[in-house]
Amino acid sequence: KNEVEQSPQNLTAQEGEFITINCSYSVGISALHWLQQHPGGGIVSLFMLSSGKKKHGRLIATINIQEKHSSLHITASHPRDSAVYICAVGLGEKLTFGTGTRLTIIP
Amino acid sequence: KAGVTQTPRYLIKTRGQQVTLSCSPISGHRSVSWYQQTPGQGLQFLFEYFSETQRNKGNFPGRFSGRQFSNSRSEMNVSTLELGDSALYLCASSLVAGGLNEQFFGPGTRLTVL
Hints:
Number of helices of chain A: 0
Shape of chain B: globular
Strand content of chain A: over 45%
Strand content of chain B: over 45%
Shape of chain A: globular
Largest interface: A-B, 26 and 26 residues
Distance between the termini of chain B: 37 Å
Radius of gyration of chain A: 13 Å
Order of helices and strands of chain B: EEEEEEEEEEE
Helix content of chain A: under 10%
Oligomer: heterodimer
Helix content of chain B: under 10%
Radius of gyration of chain B: 13 Å
């Protein structure tokens, strides 16, 4: 069993829809990261959180430490949000990654 | 502030050769981590350097090695290349060591082994 599970693997939605991507992990962690990867490979760090909730523009990330679960929400989705979203957990000082969620937003 | 830079961006090698990839972190960042990304395995942690010392290492064979210089620039080396080493190699820098810190990624080096 992978230490980090993401769902769904693929998600296609219409522009304007509310998007939720989930991440579950099986071990105690020091922090959880949400990353965005566009075609071509570049990765951008969206959030790093160890408790509660963070918001940046249309993106919201939450984490429930007791349930070992985090969600990434995108409000008013836009085609430019199309990318792969990757959850990564800090296990000690190393990052372990989920397999990613490929999000496609259709105009 | 300049971002993380990696050179070269693309590289083609043949089996058995060795390769050296370079990563220059954001100015002031002392930690550099290296990751391998493949379609089959996804992103995997290779190793992390902080103040010229390797702090952590992932589950990769000894053919994969790295080092960090006093100016925090880092190199990784892969010897005796295998076809399965074809991947996108990413480095990331952060202010201090460990997965507790926001990491800033470079654009990656795409290595193809023929």
